[in-house]
Design brief:
There is one protein chain. This protein is an all-beta fold. 0% of the residues lie in helices and 50% in strands. It contains no helices and eleven strands. Strands 2, 4, 5, 6, 9, 10 and 11 form a seven-stranded mixed sheet that branches. A four-stranded antiparallel sheet has the order 1-3-8-7, with no helix packed on it. Strand 4 and strand 5 form a beta hairpin. It is globular. The N and C termini lie far apart (40 Å).
């Protein structure tokens, strides 16, 4: 029903910035909860950030709070993750996810209905 495609990843030095995009197709995601997760080699997938239309709120993992910002442009059917002050420990594959009913624990990966293919972010020191 919904296809999600991430882009904007790459290689950046510590302290630098990247902006990830998640473009949705097949359905309008204006009323969906949208989340960003990441997974480093040998590690479990972890929550990064989420945005809820129903609650009008954003949510962040403690590890990225104050550095990352999630936003959405409903006219473009796209969600963004602005990442500033990047650290080597931010290195991971970043995934975009969508929850159609916006009625989930936003930190739990298994509550999301649709997932993108991921985009690699590498932060060097």
């Amino acid at each position: 029903q919904v296809q999600l495609v991430e882009s904007g990843g790459g290689l950046v030095q510590a302290g630098g910035s990247l902006r990830l995009s998640c473009a949705a197709s097949g359905r309008t995601i204006s009323t969906y909860a949208m989340g960003w997760f990441r997974q480093a080699p040998g590690k479990e997938r972890e929550f990064v950030a989420a945005i809820s239309w129903r609650r009008g709120s954003t949510y962040y993992a403690d590890s990225v709070k104050g550095r990352f910002t999630i936003s959405r442009d409903n006219a473009k059917n796209t969600v963004y993750l602005q990442m500033n002050s990047l650290k080597p420990e931010d290195t991971a594959v970043y995934y975009c996810a969508a929850d159609a009913d916006d009625y989930s624990d936003y930190t739990a990966a298994n509550q999301y209905d649709y997932w993108g293919q991921g985009t690699q972010v590498t932060v060097s020191s």
